[in-house]
Amino acid sequence: MTAAPLRVAFFGSPAFALPVLEAIRAEFEVVLVVAQPDKPVGRGLKRTPPPVAARAAELGLPLAQPKKLRNNAEFAARLRDSGADVAVTCAYGKILPASALQIPRFGFLNTHTSLLPRYRGAAPIQWALIRGEAVTGTTIMQTDEGMDTGPILLQRELPIAPDWAAHELAGALSAQAAGLIVEALRSVETLTPTPQDHAGATHAPMLTKEDGFVRWTDTAAQVVNRARGVAAWPQTTAFRGGARLKLGGLSVTEGAGQPGEMLAVSEAGLTVACGEGAVLIQTVQPEARKAQPAQVWAAGAGVMPGTRLDLWEPARP
């Protein structure tokens, strides 16, 4: 007699989670999809479902989009009635209450895009890039009530290409997570949980706009790594005379000078000195205007070698 396929409840919201949902759906029975509620999007503020909810609707999968999970008896009953053997979370975006974690017989498995216990939190992809990591990876963990503190079930490394920004790394990790979660679900009854070394934990909090501000006193490599990490949001921002400038196409180049000093203006872009070394900037976008080649912006703004961009440093706690 053939065993019934594992019944899975899938919790996810953004496009990042779609390959994981598709991989699970190809081999197991998805009995419930849970996503964030629809949100206003664009200038018209049209209410739009998150990508996972839209895909679930296309596929005709049972879908729930609760505003809250804690003290939500109706949703708890929906999850229980789904008959899910296990639940999988991938970039869902809400904290799970203990009452929900206990409903599936194999609990909740989370796909986390770092090598836990490093980079616990909301933005592990971005912070791995900002910190200049050469390797990251995916962890499948048993979800507990903490923030990415549960025991590890499976873990796999992923080298980070030197030219990857956040979206390239996210794509690679999404594909890796899809394969690894299927491997975990195939062996869900026999996997051995390994407690995390909490003493080695590092954190990856949600990004703020200030995380995108250039620190010209950093080394050139640090400036470029930060730009890679914030490429999707909030993007790289510098200041001149207090006015904000979005910068694009940053790379390490040769040069030395005072931090924020313009060293050269050419067709290749602007060369700006950092605390150590220099960066080449290909595009500049002034406030309320479109991005333009850096040389074009410099000509219009009267920027030349010797011009200084504003220094910005985070406030000390």
Automatic annotation (TrEMBL):
UniProt KW Chaperone keyword: no
This protein's UniProt keywords: Protein biosynthesis, Transferase
Pfam families: Formyl_trans_C, Formyl_trans_N
Residue ranges of domain Formyl transferase C-terminal in the record: 207-301
Domain spans labelled Formyl transferase N-terminal: 7-185
The organism of origin for this protein: Deinococcus taklimakanensis
Top-tier EC class: transferase
InterPro entries listed in its UniProt record: Fmt, Formyl_trans_C, Formyl_transf_N, Formyl_transf_N_sf, Formyl_transferase-like_C_sf, GART_AS, Met-tRNA-FMT_C, Met-tRNA-FMT_N
Binding, (6S)-5,6,7,8-tetrahydrofolate: S114, L115, L116, P117
PROSITE patterns attached to this UniProt entry: GART
Molecular-function GO terms, alphabetical: methionyl-tRNA formyltransferase activity
Catalytic activity: L-methionyl-tRNA(fMet) + (6R)-10-formyltetrahydrofolate = N-formyl-L-methionyl-tRNA(fMet) + (6S)-5,6,7,8-tetrahydrofolate + H(+)
Record bears the keyword Metal-binding: no
Protein name: Methionyl-tRNA formyltransferase
Source organism, top-level taxon: Bacteria
Enzyme Commission code: 2.1.2.9
Cited function: Attaches a formyl group to the free amino group of methionyl-tRNA(fMet). The formyl group appears to play a dual role in the initiator identity of N-formylmethionyl-tRNA by promoting its recognition by IF2 and preventing the misappropriation of this tRNA by the elongation apparatus.
HAMAP family: Formyl_trans
The family this protein is said to belong to: Belongs to the Fmt family.
